[in-house]
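Note to self: keep these together.
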Amino acid sequence: MSRRRDDYENSRWMKFRKWVDGEIDPLDHGMEIKIPGSEDGGAETQDTGGAGGECGKAGTVRKDGGLAGKSGPDASPGSLLIREERGIRIFHRIYQVMSVLLCFSIIFVLLWTIAYLPVFGNAGNPDNNEVSARYIEKGLDETGAVNIVTGMILDYRAFDTFGESCVLFIASCCVFALLRIDAAGRDRQTAKRLEEANDRLFEPKNDIILQKCACVLVPLILVFGIYIVLNGHLSPGGGFSGGAVLGSGLILYLNAFGFQKTERFFTEKVYRRITLAALTFYCLAKSYSFYTGANGLESHIPLGTPGAILSSGLILPLNICVGLVVACTMYAFYTLFRKGGM
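Structure:
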């Protein structure tokens, strides 16, 4: 571990931080102001920014703004100010140079990567790759999914899809961490201001038109989203698109009936449990599938009859997991950005 300096409060970095935060005035830094009428011969000293009194000994400012006295050849407040301004200018200059170097480095790496791309029409190009041909020719027999795209992303590349689901979960956790305000440490004014800014106070109380439309549309939206999720291995759709539809249904219900009714069945605790259970099942299921496949073992997971709803092995439950994660993430983002919380 790095050792903290004993004079950290008087270091240049601490002074720079105070200057950036606006805690000290650089124009009065290290100076003392003499106020007429004090006990020591008509001059009362007031420190206006010296750290530990060291800079206060450097000199005083008369009523007319002139420098009254100094102690030491290098203790002039003007020299200290010039030295700090010079350091700040050097820092900005280095920052600009490093920014330009970073941009040129990224451009060089990208151009270098492009130079190594295969020539158009080469036999080794991705469009002539045998992997895509394997997906098309053997996908139905190996995955049991009629939808080749679903079989690819939830069987051949299932861990890639798991990473995307984890990205959604981590993004929602980051939004929670950034936008959540803990109750501890709030004063009365802060609590009152947050309560006035809370969007729950402006929710529609008796909007008959919105509520009647939601009563008709929300069940249809939820049923349609479930249909997209459950038929992702048979037709275009899947967990991502179906989860987006389910999330929009929850958001519509929230706008129509408010948090009080929505929290009867969907709270922050429910969100955490659903997301954690879905991601855990996804990880364990595909870990088992890939382990048995890599070692030539029988997984005992039936593929079923292609075209039937209960088919394609693990693709159907994985679609359900992805749909739940997407729906919960959409709803969480909406509730947090509207300042209502979950």
